[in-house]
From TrEMBL:
It comes from the Archaea. This is Ribose 1,5-bisphosphate isomerase. Substrate binds at residues 25-28, 68, 212-213, 238. It catalyses: alpha-D-ribose 1,5-bisphosphate = D-ribulose 1,5-bisphosphate. Keywords: Carbohydrate metabolism, Isomerase. One of its GO terms (biological process) is L-methionine salvage from methylthioadenosine. It comes from Natronorubrum halalkaliphilum.
Length: 325
């Protein structure tokens, strides 16, 4: 955090902590929480000059931005809200941020339900869908198909190390969908029974690569080999505008304790981290576009290679840091 920036509201700091610790997780949910936090910052601010207010909002955006690097929905949300900041007085600025954050949250919900309808059209009655991780965009497709009266079954990958597959399994059971939970290593075997692989995305690059939970790329390669189509459900806030100018998406590396506890390390015979046994814990991976059949958005479905056109239309050519005017 830049020392010259003002302190942020405790509610913003708490949201940032929750995102970093994955109490708030999943790209769309993170974006929603970030917009909400900016609105809180605006509502709670007690500064009396417009420039101090703007500085505070920038500081809040930076605090939120620095939590997790991979899901582009976070900077896209921050940018959207901050670009709506307008007015001459603090109260005008405050009102503009609160209204813009509300608009963003509303659009996010709308986009997810529209996307669900698009994705649902790819699913037929009786289909078996294999999922990875927990994606609200992916679930929206399944929910829409169920609302249309289609019967579905799910094969849910556990998704080590954080086991977000449990959240997916729980939600699908609430919806009455029969669920088979499998360990990640069993995916290829169970692809024989699947009609679709359905995943979400944290970011989509200009070449159509999909950045999503670690294990997505291996699943997609296996699905291609087995002839099972791979569908990615991703609202357009998952499009990563910086990749149009050649930037790559940073893959978050998480704490090794998510993979190996101290006791487990000791059982292997290694007493202390950093003494010969290295644990790597990348949270995401990159699936090349050739393994993806369709990217389903609120604007329709696209072959991955064509998303760049949509990206240009929505974001223009360049973006900059979210807090830059
Ligand atoms: O990879 C994950 C979550 O990773 P983590 O658990 O590490 O945040 C999800 O597939 C995407 O974020 C899409 O989710 P959504 O569709 O809800 O935006």
């Amino acid at each position: 955090m830049d020392e010259s920036l003002p302190a942020v509201d405790p509610a913003v700091a708490a949201t940032a902590d929750d995102i970093a610790e994955m109490e708030i997780r999943g790209a769309a949910t993170i974006a929603d929480a970030a917009a909400e936090a900016l609105a809180r910052q605006a509502a709670q601010s007690d500064v009396d000059s417009p420039s101090a207010f703007r500085q505070q909002l920038r500081a809040a955006a930076k605090t939120l931005y620095e939590t997790r690097p991979t899901a582009v929905s976070l900077p896209n949300a921050l940018r959207y809200v901050l670009r709506g900041m307008s007015g001459e007085t603090v109260s005008e600025l405050r009102a503009s941020i609160i209204a813009r954050a509300e608009e963003f949250q509303h659009d996010l919900t709308q986009a997810q339900s529209k996307l669900g309808e698009v994705g649902s059209n790819r699913l037929r009655d009786g289909d078996v869908v294999m999922t990875h991780c927990h994606s609200t965009d992916a679930l929206s497709c399944l929910e829409a198909a169920l609302e249309d009266g289609k019967e579905l079954e799910a094969i849910v990958k556990e998704t080590r190390p954080r086991k977000q597959g449990y959240i997916t399994a729980g939600r699908l059971r609430e919806l009455g969908v029969p669920v088979t939970l499998i360990v990640d290593n069993a995916a290829r075997r169970y692809l024989d029974r699947a009609d679709h692989v359905l995943v979400g995305a944290d970011s989509i690059a200009a070449d159509g690569s999909v950045i999503n939970k670690i294990g997505t790329s291996g699943l997609a390669v296996n699905a291609r080999e087995r002839g099972v189509p791979v569908m990615v459900a991703a609202q357009t806030i998952k499009l990563h505008p910086d990749t149009m100018t050649g930037h790559t998406v940073e893959i978050e590396m998480r704490d090794e304790l998510e993979v190996l506890t101290d006791n487990e390390r000791a059982a292997i015979g290694d007493e202390q981290a950093g003494e010969g046994l290295t644990v790597e814990n990348p949270a995401f991976d990159v699936t090349p576009p050739r393994y993806v059949d369709a990217i389903v958005t609120e604007r329709g479905q696209f072959p991955p290679e064509s998303v760049v056109t949509l990206m240009r239309e929505l974001f223009g050519e360049s973006t900059g840091e979210p807090w830059e005017p």
